[in-house]
Amino acid sequence: MDTQTPSSATLVSRTSGNNPHNQPNNLPTFILERNTLFQKLKEKHNKTIAAKARAPVAVKLVTRAGDLSTELQVTAWEATPGHLLKHVTKEIAAEVVVARVDGVLWDLSRPLEQDCEVSYHSHNDPDRRAVFWHSAAHVLGETAEKYYGCLLSHGPPTTTGFFYDMALDADRAVKETDWAPLEASAKKYLKEKQKFERVIVSKDDLRNLFAYSKYKLHYVEKFVPDDGFTTVYRNGPLVDLCTGPHIQNTRQISAFKIKANSSAYFLNDPTNDSLQRISGVAFANAEQMKRWETSVAEAKARDHQVIGKRQKLF
């Protein structure tokens, strides 16, 4: 793999041409071109969904593991797990961000396709937390892509939050002084209630969509079979290769914090490019963030006490 990072001109070039679909006009050219193509692919995807037969299907709705189920009849390719939340209590509906359909994690806005069992997850469910943090990673990616004009690599959830790896200009690195403006931008995007839009895309179209990035093309070539398909998600101006699922919109995230930055090799291989990594954490409300900050501070205090005792400092 070529270890030369893209030039400044590639990363932050601007466009003076037309700006379809009201995209922010200070985005790099590669983002504007990518998003124009995405819009065409989305319209094609929507036509495919619209052509699906609207037939009645039976749904077994289970609000939580062990609860009694409800039998419903809905219309295939129209009804979504989000629509079915009206059949559960307000307390449960308020904390739901993702569903399972026949055991498979499923976007709340994704249509049901056939007879199935739909279930939801409690606030502390690990899968729910992973989906939530994965969506927050996309907000971080959106923020970084606009702030730096960078090329994104990948941005997964972790057991303690999420991160995104990215390629900046060779003479530039993420600094702690960047955190505040990045957080400010992210919080702006949260308030915009950006939807997470899911589109199925062929491998050939993926190659065109992500032609500007050797990092995204690596994942396309490695994980998508020839003549195959996978999904792409859009939130705001970010279009990302991703299997999902995601939360319904960015407003479901109320608290967002960057907690670290570092360097990381692409694919964790020291023979590849050295990328920049930004790590963060996010929650549905400020109280959850406050509890997290308290737990982190307490953990650090315990660590200092252990180290102090070992070194006989106190």
Topology diagram in text:
Elements: H1 8-12, H2 29-50, E1 56-62, E2 70-75, H3 90-95, E3 99-101, E4 104-106, E5 116-120, H4 126-148, E6 151-152, E7 157-158, E8 161-167, H5 179-191, E9 197-202, H6 203-209, H7 214-223, E10 229-235, E11 238-241, E12 255-265, E13 274-283, H8 286-310
Parallel strand pairs: 1-5
Antiparallel strand pairs: 1-2, 3-4, 3-5, 6-8, 7-8, 8-13, 9-10, 10-11, 12-13
Helix pairs in contact: 4-5
pLDDT averaged over residues: 89
**Strand arrangement across the biggest beta sheet:** 2-1-5-3-4
Number of helices: 8
Q: What percentage of residues falls in helices of 4 or more residues?
A: 25-40%
What amount of the residues lies in strands? Answer: 15-25%
Rg estimate, integer Å: 21 Å
What is the helix/strand order? HHEEHEEEHEEEHEHHEEEEH
The major beta sheet can be summarized as: 5 strands, mixed
Distance between the termini: 52 Å
* Shape category: globular
Structural class: alpha+beta
* Total count of strands: 13
Low-confidence stretches: 1-22
